[in-house]
Amino acid sequence: MNIKELPEIEYIIPGTGACAGCPSTIGLRLVGKALGENAICLLTPSCAVASMGMTPKTCYSFPALNICFASAGASGGAISMALDPLYSKKRLEGEKPVVFAWVGDGGTYDIGFQGLSAAAERNDDFIFFCYNNEAYSNTGNQRSGATPQYVPTTTSPLGKEMLQKNVPLLMLEHRPPYVATASLAYPLDLYRKVEKAKSIKGFRYIEIHMPCCTSWKFPAAETIEVSRLAIRTGSWLLWEAENGKLSLNGVTAALAEGKRKPLPVEEYLKAQGRYAWLLKSPDKDYYIGNIENNIRRELEFMAGRAKL
Amino acid sequence: MTKVFDSGNVACALAVKDVGVDFVAAYPITPQTSVVEKIASYIAEGEMDAKYLPVESEHSALSAVAAASAVGARVFTATSSQGLLYMHEILHYAAGGRLPIVMANVNRAINMPWCLYVDHQDAVSQRDTGWIQLFAASNQEIYDSVILAYKVAEEVQIPVMVNYDGFLVSHSSMPFETLEQDKIREFLPALNPPWRLHPQWGGTFGNVTPSEEYVPYRYALTEDIKKAGDVIVRCSKEYERLTGRWHGGHFETYRPEGAEYFLFSMGSMGKEMEIAVDLLREQGIAAAGLRLRIFSPFPEEELAALLPTGAKLLVFDRNLVYGSAGGALLQLAKAALFNRRDSLQVIGISLGLGGEDLPASVLVAKAREMMEVCK
Question: How far is the alpha carbon of B36 from chain A, nearest alpha carbon, in Å?
Fold first, then answer.
């Protein structure tokens, strides 16, 4: 399959309130194509809500419910579960829709984590998408649990001291049937993973890396290029796991197997304004050394996990 | 119709089973626990055709039933005390979403310090969330109020909270009667909501909304809650015609004939008050009991119309409005009577907090103290 063979139907109507180059809109567009028209969407407060249009206008053509920030884990499984008796009691007819939640990293890593963890543990039947732009971009770029080390935000003005969590891995160890990571630079990989998730029953988690031009400070036209650099430098890893069996995908697999050398991480950092202070720092080598050590460690860790 | 001798929590669970709830999500908390345990066992044993989601918190419980309600399911949850407080954000959300959720709140004191026993601080502190709040005082009234709550919630599209006192009612066994399925169906037809979150209906809900659309939406909610008081009384009368059971309209009055002092309360205290009224009548005092059944919307006009000339309203609050004299009922009663019945005397106290025992003798003594002040 090539990108021109993706379904032509669009679930995001042009004229959204999103910024130029918005990764969430690109991602949701692809997800919509893979899930099809029989889908119900849940949204938590985020750019995806702020940009959908003000009542009574909307840019999403799938049915969507805006829920509270910490609610996605509970509401997703509830909708899917509540639909079952409605179909069995013949109050609804036809094929049961697929239920998915579209949640930012704040709603996933931070305020929504408890509900998410519980939904995964219960194996609730819906797909939880985390669109991870590594900050609270909607409120003007505050730090989240997904913000990487050294990144300055309005609430970590000197650069965040600690590393981000590895939430996809945490989800994997909840032992649901399907967990995957994805990148906008590899849309067919993303499309395949969403199709795969759609074919599975139970809790499914897909996290998509979402370089955000406004928070990360790069030109709007470079969203895909920055996404690609994240993969090629090993800063974001592509993998999927079915029933706990993990496999690394594409470039990430080649990096782990040593078939391909990662690009120097500086290539990725210098594409973004948020690391400008670090690149100008007299301690630049120290910082970059730490970042590269972490990349190596994560790659080795996930390659080892793939052998289980 | 089956006669049952069991606890208030079982009366609640039986009503949930009998009305044909599709979906339940709940988190255990004392003294609510046996409601949800009972429902889980009905579902597990095939006595109830519904799904049960054992969520990890009350915030998730109400998030779950709100979303399930949005797809058109008849839903239920139950909680108490801290659990109700933890739901606070979603209480507002559910009312704003006009979702016909029914929830039982088994009243319990709130932290800190920890206390397991009854008072009404939990429910009273959620007054302004846009929910209808009923207070039941017996196991029969719990069973009937849950059925009534679905009827009302689905007609006015506003969630309803059915409150009853922790332990005193939730864990006390009393005789009560259930209702046959055909009569319940006659009173409460299958849920057919005007909109659903579903591809067959389409639409996006809860989007960011400009002020000019937000304002009429909010006013519609408060106007509809105001009107819901009459809907509750009309549905109660319809239920009475079907079952012969009547627990009162906005209020349940006790010995109002020729009364001068009206002893105003809600929850199980209102039942104990009947004994207190008998004792006061024996002492030659013209006392009456006035038990509030609908806390929200507070029946302002009905209270003003009910009290005779020269009546004195003695308010017994099982809650505190911190820093003020008395509690929420006192404030609401005063607001209701101001400019309507300015000549009436209104006085109140807060008592019975954290399960403090309130036998009729104590109620009589407190009533007499207030009568002294009225003179």
Answer: 16
Partners of residue B204 in chain A, C-beta under 8 Å: 52, 58, 60, 63-66
Provide the domain limits for residue A254: 8-306
B65, B97 Cβ separation under 8 angstroms? no
Specify the CATH architecture of the domain B3-243.
3-Layer(aba) Sandwich (3.40)
- Chain B residues in contact with A92 by the CB 8 A cut-off are 72, 198, 200
By the 8 A CB rule, do A218 and A211 touch? Answer: yes
CA angle B307, B312, B316 (to 5 degrees): 100
- Answer whether residue A183 is part of any domain: yes
Within 10 A of B77 (CB to CB), how many other CB atoms are there? 32
A3: in domain? no
Task: List chain B domain ranges.
Answer: 3-243, 251-374
Tell the CATH topology of B251-374. Answer: Rossmann fold (3.40.50)
CATH label of the domain that carries residue A187: 3.40.50.970
Strand ranges, E, within B206-275: 251-254, 261-266
**Alpha-carbon gap: B25 to the closest alpha carbon of chain A (Å):** 8
Distance from the A9 Cα atom to the nearest Cα atom in chain B, whole angstroms = 15
Which helix H or strand E contains B221, and what residues bound it?
A: helix B211-243
Q: What angle do CA B344, B347, B351 make, to 5 degrees?
A: 150
- The answer to whether A264 faces chain B, any CB pair under 8 Å, is no
**Which residues on B lie below 8 Å from A64 (Cβ)?**
197, 204-205
Beta bridge partners of A128: A101, A205
**Is the CB of B25 inside 8 Å of chain A's CB atoms?**
yes
pLDDT tens, N- to C-terminus, chain B (375 residues): 799 999 999 999 999 999 999 999 999 999 999 999 999 999 999 999 999 999 999 999 999 999 999 999 999 999 999 999 999 999 999 999 999 999 999 999 999 999 999 999 999 999 999 999 999 999 999 999 999 999 999 999 999 999 999 999 999 999 999 999 999 999 999 999 988 999 999 999 999 999 999 999 999 999 999 999 999 999 999 999 999 999 999 999 999 999 999 999 999 999 999 999 999 999 999 999 999 999 999 999 999 999 999 999 999 999 999 999 889 999 999 999 999 999 999 999 999 999 999 999 999 999 999 999 987
Does the predicted model carry a pTM greater than 0.95? yes
Question: Which residue is closest to B53 within chain A, CA to CA?
Answer: A78
Give φ, ψ of A60 to 5 degrees.
-100, 135
Q: Output the CA angle B92-B98-B101, nearest 5 degrees.
A: 80
Residue A1 lies in a domain: no
**ipTM more than 0.90?**
yes
Count of domains forming chain A: 1
| Whether B79 contacts chain A with CB within 8 A | no
- B204/A66 touch (CB, cutoff 8 Å), yes or no: yes
Q: Between A and B, how many CB-CB pairs are < 8 A?
A: 152
**B40 close to A (CB below 8 A):** no
d(CA A93, CA A98): 14
Residue A213 lies in a domain: yes
Closest CA to B97 of B120, B121, B65, B127: B65
